[in-house]
Design goal:
Radius of gyration: 14 Å
Number of domains: 1
Helix content: under 10%
Oligomer: single chain
Distance between the termini: 35 Å
Number of strands: 8
Structural class: mainly beta
Strand order of the largest sheet: 1-2-3-4-5-6-7-8
Order of helices and strands: EEEEEEEE
Largest sheet: 8 strands, antiparallel, barrel
Number of helices: 0
């Protein structure tokens, strides 16, 4: 079976939040440290309203990401959710993801956010 080709290699890349809906906890002070092995993608994140978090998922051959996330916020609450992220290139040739996420804890609301490679 041939090895799939992926449009992005996220190994070692750092991302920051550019925008988020009001019901999200990630903000401009949150940093994501990504890793990738084939189609498997994972990251740790912290900063802003997030004490520490992890995400784990996979990349489709078109670059879309699907993952589950969990973190502890500054109030000490453990929050969980799922996300579908759609890639694009910013004007400065950095990778940017438009994220469509849903809390699987708390109020189970949904939102959108934007992250970009630092």
């Amino acid at each position: 079976m041939p090895i799939a080709k992926f449009p992005y290699n996220l190994e070692g890349k750092v991302f920051r939040s550019l925008a988020n809906t009001d019901n999200g906890e990630v903000d401009g002070d949150t940093r994501f440290q990504y890793h990738q092995k084939g189609d498997i993608v994972w990251a740790t994140y912290e900063g802003g309203q997030v004490r520490f978090g992890t995400l784990s998922g996979y990349m489709e051959t078109n670059g879309d990401l699907h993952f589950r996330y969990q973190h502890q916020n500054l109030a000490g609450e453990f929050m969980t959710g799922k996300c579908h992220s759609i890639p694009s290139n910013s004007t400065n040739d950095k990778i940017r993801y438009e994220e469509h996420w849903t809390w699987t804890s708390g109020d189970q609301s949904s939102g959108t956010s934007m992250i970009e490679e630092v």
